[in-house]
Specification:
Helix content is 50%, strand content 15%. With 387 residues, it is an alpha+beta fold. The termini are far apart. Bound molecules: flavin-adenine dinucleotide. The site of flavin-adenine dinucleotide has 22 residues, from strand 3, strand 5, helix 10 and helix 11.
Length: 387
């Protein structure tokens, strides 16, 4: 596996163990039939429990059954899962960084005890409802709202593009609290079997096909007061979760690119044209040289990001640069790998085109490439250019 500057040398035993466990899991349980899942638009649901048993959901959290592994170990885990498929990494990212993290950071003791151990084991599945049909890049303008109703709240609105919503037990729904002054955004734990909740599946995707995506409809849904996340108010709630998930994506995208590189490297050695392997042609070597270089640069950024996170010095802007760069890199390089595989490259028998199609989603969700560009633009000029 490509590790050109020997980053492995700095890993401790636990980090190597987690990486190897995930790599083996992907080789044995994901790669054999992920192409078929992609074609059929299905998620390998049978892996959900096993991923829980192996500790793949938020192992970087502390307590409630989570082992509190290093941020590097968590990143390596995301990298290996996404080498399998972005749908698999998305499942683990949503469960861990977008649902378990906010319960851990902002939940009551009862909420933590009810959800964290069960979600860590994969017995309960969660989803994160922020995006709405009319509000994607600008979630601050969300229309979903909550109003006081006796001992709790009534929720109304709709969320869309929600990873895992059709298979979730609980959704974290971000909504404006109309009963409070300034209508702050608050997080509500909404069990999906409550009256008035619908979670229709979105079927027409041509990207991230091995992942279940849906809507969340909320029609006069009553939730008790104890389902509100008590520890956060305002956009800081959802945005802080996104920072955690984007951290994992910055690592994960490297896995997808690395898988494309390895597939192309092998193909270049195996495929004969004009009397010998295509890997002897300078044009093909140039592609591998560029791919290997870009992957290595992305790895360096991810490892540094992990160090900053471990020290408590990672800022959302650091994550924006890493997500933006590493996903664009994977998007570009998966296409080059696809090209190297000729006609075979457009099939699900090989991984590059599947990764390439997945990257269209990864480039768009968790803050589009454009939005992260504007975050960096603001960082470097002090001028916000969003509006
Ligand atoms: P828009 O915001 O309408 O953007 C359209 C285009 O305009 C983009 O190119 C964008 O970059 C550009 N644009 C927007 N504003 C600006 C600006 N100020 N300056 C320049 N260009 C701009 N959301 C969740 O809440 N939970 C999930 O689990 C989840 N999972 C997803 C899974 C999939 C498969 C997909 C595709 C999306 C998912 N999303 C999820 C939603 C995702 O986060 C949004 O699609 C994303 O934020 C972009 O919003 P939008 O699609 O409405 O695009």
């Amino acid at each position: 596996m490509l590790d050109f500057v020997n980053l492995e040398a700095d890993l401790d035993q636990e980090e190597r163990m987690i990486r190897d466990t995930a790599r083996e899991f992907v080789e044995e349980h994901v790669k054999p039939d992920i192409g078929e899942h992609f074609e059929n638009g299905t998620f390998p649901k049978e892996l959900i429990d096993e991923m829980g048993e192996l500790g793949f959901y938020a192992p970087n959290l502390e307590g409630y059954g989570s082992p509190n592994v290093s941020e590097t170990a968590y990143g390596l885990l995301m990298q290996e899962l996404e080498a399998g498929d972005s749908g698999l990494r998305s499942m683990a990212s949503v469960q861990g960084a977008l649902v378990m993290y906010p319960i851990h950071a902002y939940g009551s003791e009862e909420q933590k005890e009810e959800w964290l151990p069960a979600m860590g084991r994969g017995e309960a599945i969660g989803c994160f409802g922020l995006t709405e049909p009319e509000h994607g890049s600008n979630p601050t303008a969300m229309e979903t709202y909550a109003e006081r109703d006796g001992d709790g709240y009534v929720l109304n609105g709709s969320k869309t593009w929600i990873t895992n919503s059709p298979i979730s037990d609980v959704a974290i729904v971000w909504a404006r609290d109309r009963s409070a002054e300034d209508t702050p955004v608050r997080g509500f734990l909404v069990e999906t079997d409550r009256d008035g909740v619908s979670t229709n599946k979105i079927d027409e995707k041509l990207s991230l096909r091995a992942s279940i995506t849906g809507e969340i409809g909320l029609n006069n849904v009553h939730v008790p007061e104890e389902n509100v996340l008590p520890g956060v108010e305002g956009m800081k709630g959802p945005l802080s979760c996104l920072t955690q998930a984007r951290y994992g994506i910055a690592w994960g995208a490297i896995g997808a690119a690395r898988d494309c590189f390895e597939e192309a490297r092998q193909y270049a050695k195996d495929r004969d044209q004009f009397g010998g392997p295509i890997g002897r042609f300078q044009l093909q070597q140039r592609k591998l040289a560029e791919m290997g270089t870009q992957i290595t640069l992305a790895q360096l950024l991810a490892y540094r990001l992990a160090e900053l996170k471990e020290r408590g010095e990672m800022r959302p802007q650091h994550v924006s640069m890493s997500k933006r760069n590493n996903v664009r890199m994977a998007r570009d390089q998966s296409r080059i790998a696809r090209e190297m595989l000729g006609g075979n490259g457009i099939t699900t028998d090989y991984s590059p085109m599947r990764h390439m199609a997945n990257m269209e989603t990864v480039y768009t969700y968790e803050g589009t490439h454009d939005i992260h560009t504007l975050v960096l633009g603001e960082e470097f000029t002090g001028i916000a250019a969003y509006q």
